[in-house]
Amino acid sequence: MDSAPVLYTYYRSSCSARVRIALNHKGIDYEARPINLVSGEQLSAEYTAQNPSGLVPLLVIDGREISQSVAILEYLEETRPAKPLLPADPAQRAQVRTLVGVICCDIQPLQNLRVLKTVPEDQRPAYARAVIESGLAVFEKMLERTAGRFCVGDEVTLADCCLIPQLYNARRFGVDIARFPRIQQIEARANALPAFRAAHWTRQPDCPAELASQHALP
After folding, report:
1. Residue 43's CB: how many other CB atoms inside 10 A?
2. Where is the GST N-terminal domain (predicted)?
């Protein structure tokens, strides 16, 4: 019997959360191995030998080591097509990938830990908040054309897997999600689903108990 996939993850990493949601949605059991980004575990010789970028997530699956969350999501979709996260219609697939790009290319890279460390410490929250608010405003506008119950139509897609973890970061930096009613409605629906609830940052094994109790999902 093949061993369970191993996900190198960090509880507050939105990139890791995207993969956790997809694995949960598809019913794929996996072993979580936390990597502490604050203490620098991702830069250890042992970890960078597996993942030269020194980032999370890294998924070890099918005898392969796959990094970069979007590549992992696409791999899971191609090799585990049950409970799909991409629509059958090519135009809708393009819509999903466009929304994924807004989160994964236009927002998250500009407010991640590596970039924030280049900004004066007292300016970091305002900088991150501005980046996230600007990107979510674009995302909200796009939802006018694509959304049903979720980001694209009425089924969960890769776009939802990427949006919901970005909202963890948004709240952390003081973004008022009520400014984005469509996003807020989708978040409420997603957070009612077991796959999203289990992937929430407060429910990860490396999340400090105090933070988990303060920010737990209702």
Report:
1. 11
2. 3-84
112-133 pLDDT tens trace: 888 999 999 999 999 999 999 9
Q: What is the pLDDT of residues 12-32, one digit of tens each?
A: 999 999 999 999 999 999 999
Q: Is residue 38 part of a domain?
A: yes
Give me the number of domains the chain comprises: 2
Domain that includes residue 180, residue range:
90-199
Within 8 A by CB and 6+ apart from 112, the residues are: none
CATH number at residue 12: 3.40.30.10
Identify whether residues 94 and 195 lie together within a single domain: yes
Residue 99 is encoded by which pair of tokens?
A: 């929304």
> Strand order of the sheet with strand 6-9?
31-34, 6-9, 58-61, 64-67
